[in-house]
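quick one, two chains, predict together pls
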Amino acid sequence: MERHFDQQLGVLRRNLIQMASVVEMAISNAVKSLKERDSDLAHSVVMHDEQVDDLELEIDKQCVDLLALQQPMAVDLRFITSAMKITNNLERMGDLAVNIAERVVPLNQEPQLKPLIDIPMMATIAQTMVKDSIDAFVNKDTTLAQAVCQRDSTVDALNDQIFRELLTYMMEDPGNIIRAVHLMFISRHLERIADHSTNIAEEVVYIVRATVVKHRKHRLSEL
Amino acid sequence: MERHFDQQLGVLRRNLIQMASVVEMAISNAVKSLKERDSDLAHSVVMHDEQVDDLELEIDKQCVDLLALQQPMAVDLRFITSAMKITNNLERMGDLAVNIAERVVPLNQEPQLKPLIDIPMMATIAQTMVKDSIDAFVNKDTTLAQAVCQRDSTVDALNDQIFRELLTYMMEDPGNIIRAVHLMFISRHLERIADHSTNIAEEVVYIVRATVVKHRKHRLSEL
């Protein structure tokens, strides 16, 4: 019986990794479609979101079944309840990748507002945070999880900087306004993606140490 | 033993209702601080968010304890796993109320851009959705839950309309830009609050009917 339970936990772990890699790809393609002005790629990000939604439903069902049939305790129970929170975060990240892609389409119909530097940099950090938060989860690595949480403030600062810079473009010429607004929202979406990675990293600490660090960011230094 | 379990479920239900009413109040005060240009009220929304965070942690812990100690089945199991998702949605709504309040403060330092009509209307609908989604949850009322889901498209349409109208203000005068951007984000935050209410309403259908309607909005008419 226990061996069967371990196998099922293994399946759950693999499904989460698969879902994370689909979401990582969606974020990566959304940003690529922006950088390379590739509207076909942007459309494909929107089309592929259903896959993320289906994985969320499947994993959620698997978690509820495991709770019902195996009545897990301690670390296994925390793992399963956290898995449900993690899928939720991954699903939102998938939606945010779609939101980015949806803004890339109108952006690509006009000349580029400015060479993009900070947004791709922010995207790179956010993508690394997604990857690392899932790696931390798979390997129960709280040191890596902690590093993810710490990078969140860099992303927040970049979002702020991008917001201010785009405002100057808007002031300069009304013809820049629509494009600048789209870029502002893209920046905000990336910032939210980083937040969701931080949530996942916080779940990792909870699974491993049974310590809740959510809403307790000032305590992370104590980990 | 069972009577004790029922009591515990009652406590969980009351805690969720309490959390929902704190969040409702935060949203209501955030919008009031915008309409009445009351920066003190906006600051108080930001200050009170900790209460929402604490309630989320408390309810989550209670859910995990119930899963561990009572090993619930069927509708009770769905109720508890949904409760964890509902707190997560409520916590995000609390954050969004804070995000609104944070933008009210700089807005109030300048003259009003325009008489606000659509944003308060959108806020009213969003607040009703929050209230109704929680009422639907408390009373296991799938008809009310369905009505919440259906109102989501009205909020989306209003957000779109507000976005377009604010663009015209930005084009007209660069001096309007910063205020219009803040209002755009406030509108987007309200739209997200409505989305979270919809998520809660979808959980209600799941608890009652064991039917997942999430990501399956076209199937709602079949309920």
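Helices of chain A lie at 2-35, 39-47, 49-70, 74-108, 118-138, 142-172, 177-209.
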